[in-house]
Design a protein that fits this description.
By secondary structure, this protein is mainly alpha-helical. It has helices spanning about 5-30, 60-75, 80-85, 85-105, 125-145; strands at about 35, 40-45, 110-115. It has a three-stranded antiparallel beta sheet. Helices cover about 60% and strands about 10% of the residues. It has one domain (about 10-145). This is Lipoprotein signal peptidase. It is an enzyme of class 3 (hydrolase).
């Protein structure tokens, strides 16, 4: 079944995965920046967004693995929807896999962007940003698809 995915899916998947892991590597090697608006500092998130479900401990990585496999399987089953949003899903699945790899290799997901000007926001990483971008791409395409293709 994986042979049916076009090369552009795998290229985007690889690019996002490599960029995310490379950015995390820099912080694992000690890169740090402290600024007025945000800090770039190494942290480990043992939960999911906003550290939710951290209480699941070691089980969380297996739950996330099942979730990613189920999503991928569902998308392969929903061929038209998957094909319509191929790039967005390549980004989303790659970012999810990159964060999942962190759970197995490190003590949690490697996060490093901490916004603290005016309010404190959850610490996040490039994969988290890419997941949000992929969701936005899907929503934009679905909203405007009725009127004509935009992305």
């Amino acid at each position: 079944m994986l042979k049916i995915l076009p090369l552009k899916f795998w290229l985007v998947f690889a690019l996002v995965f490599i960029l995310d892991q490379a950015s995390k590597y820099l912080f694992l090697q000690g890169l740090e920046y402290k600024g007025e608006f945000f800090d770039l500092v190494l942290t480990y998130n043992t939960g999911v967004a906003f550290s939710m479900f951290a209480f699941l401990g070691e089980y969380l990585k297996y739950i996330q693995l099942v979730f990613i496999l189920a999503l991928f399987g569902y998308l392969l089953y929903q061929k038209d929807f998957f094909k319509t949003h191929l790039i967005a899903f390549a980004i989303m699945l790659s970012a999810g896999c990159s964060n999942l790899l962190d759970r197995f290799v490190h003590i949690g997901v490697v996060d490093f962007v901490f916004w603290h000007k005016w309010f404190e926001f959850a610490v996040f990483n490039l994969a988290d940003v890419m997941i949000n971008i992929s969701v936005a791409l899907i929503l934009i395409k679905e909203i405007f698809n009725k009127k004509g293709e935009i992305c």
